[in-house]
Amino acid sequence: MTITTIPHFLNGEETTGLGERTQPVFNPATGEQTGALCLADRQDLEAAVAAAKKASESWGDISLAKRTAVLFRFRELVAAHTDELAAIITSEHGKVLSDAKGEIGRGLEVIEFACGIPQLLKGDYSDQASTGIDVFSYRQPVGVVAGITPFNFPVMVPLWMAPMAIATGNAFILKPSGRVPSAAMLLADLWKQAGLPDGVFQVLHGDRETISGLLTHPDVDAISFVGSTPVAKHIVETATAHGKRVQALGGAKNHAIVLPDADMDNAADHLAAAAFGSAGQRCMAISVAVAVSDAADLLVKKVEERALAVKVKNGTEPDADMGPVISPESKAFIIKTIAEAEHAGAAMVVDGRDLVVAGHEDGFWVGPTVIDHVQTEMSAYTEEIFGPVLVVVRVEDLEEGIRLINANPYGNGTAIFTTNGAAARKFQRQVQVGMVGVNVPIPVPVAYHSFGGWKNSLFGDKHIYGPEGVSFYTRGKVITQRWPEPTHASGASYNFPSN
Question: Residue 327, Cα to own-chain centre: how many angstroms?
Answer without folding.
Answer: 19
